Amino acid sequence: MSNFAREMAFYTAYHQENTNVWIHVFGVPLITFTAFVPLAWLELFSVSGVPVTAATLLYLYSVQYYLRTDLLFGSIATVLYGALLFAAHLVAAEGYVLGAVVFAAGQIIGWTSQIYGHLHYEGNKPAFFESVYQSFISAPLFIIADLCFHYGIKSEVQDKIHQELIASGKLRKEPGNFYKAQRA
Q: Which InterPro entries does the record cross-reference, listed alphabetically (predicted)?
């Protein structure tokens, strides 16, 4: 099994119920976008007159990991999160007050929805209690994979994840299971 499938199986063990997965599909990019806003204020250096911010470095670190982990999912993530980075820089350029409001509102809505989804729909704690790295760096890639699997893209990887969940005893059987529903 690929390293990606193994990591995705860990993530998927916490995200199997349909509603919670869809909450994450919207919440994770919201958290990512709004986290980029204050980081866009931190100009670290410039390259040929182009400022490089902490948000840009976080983006570059993340997408190099995404592309090495899975080329298709990483390519989609590069475009999606690149657009969010661009939008965050636009918001940051509007000033600290607007940026702070966008940051605070997005983080509160994003994190509250994530925690609610886990407690109400999954009946478990969020994965960040076990792996902070996966929650902040990997989750944005994993929601891309979730969407691709939902539409039948790369089903062979989904099969490996499904088998890993069965083997580890972590595939839940309740109605509304995101992965079970896709396999029917």
A: Mpo1-like
